[in-house]
Amino acid sequence: MTALPLQGKTALITGSTQGLGLAAARQFKDAGCRIIDNGFSGGKYIGADLRNPAEIEAMIRSAGAIDILVNNAVVRHTASAEQFTPDQWNESLAVNLSAAFHTIRLTLPGMKSRGWGRIVNVSSIYGQQGATNRVGYVTTKTALIGLTRAIALEVVGTGVTCNAVCPGTTETPVHEATIDALVKSEGLSRMEAEKKFLSGKQPTGRIIPADDVAHLMVFLCGPASGDINGGIFPIDAAWSAG
Known about the structure:
Distance between the termini: 43 Å
Number of strands: 6
Mean pLDDT: 94
CATH architecture of the largest domain: 3-Layer(aba) Sandwich
Order of helices and strands: EHEHEHEHEHHHE
Low-confidence stretches: none
CATH superfamily of the largest domain: NAD(P)-binding Rossmann-like Domain
Strand content: 5-15%
Helix content: 40-55%
Largest sheet: 6 strands, parallel
Structural class: alpha/beta
């Protein structure tokens, strides 16, 4: 029987109630991790409001020793810069960026003391290029890459690594709803609707499975990942290569 690569490790995954975060929780569990979920779906999830540093700190305290941290939680607001409200801007900064800083600063001491830790920040294709009507999302996802690089240099030699993944358009409830609407309103097949939705973006014209991105995260935390630190990993079907 093959040993589980992350047996006995504890992973905290923010925003893990649906979409990519939920896929990551399942894949890390399959790799042997104890999972600490964060979100607002009740049940087993820790419903810490990531806009509030005090709630983030309480979540980290209640979780115990955290070996793997996946900063996945995100909010998206669609508007041009002049129509983007101050509340939307502040929420984007708090959830998409500041929450990652707080979870990192609070979990790093324990990781360093144990001589092992893995941090994965979920950026985006929009952390590598701009887009209209996404000022909060583009800004915060770009900043996450800078945060990743800064932390990676700080943890050299400690047994801790920090990397970022940059997915293209991936399976999420929001994207699924858009594609379903195209299928119904225009009489398209699923494949035709995906191609239309992704036209001018993802070269394959296909949505990236959330499990594929989650598998990459697990690899970055696995036995072969010790020298992978400060990496920015696109998983976007060559979108960023164009």
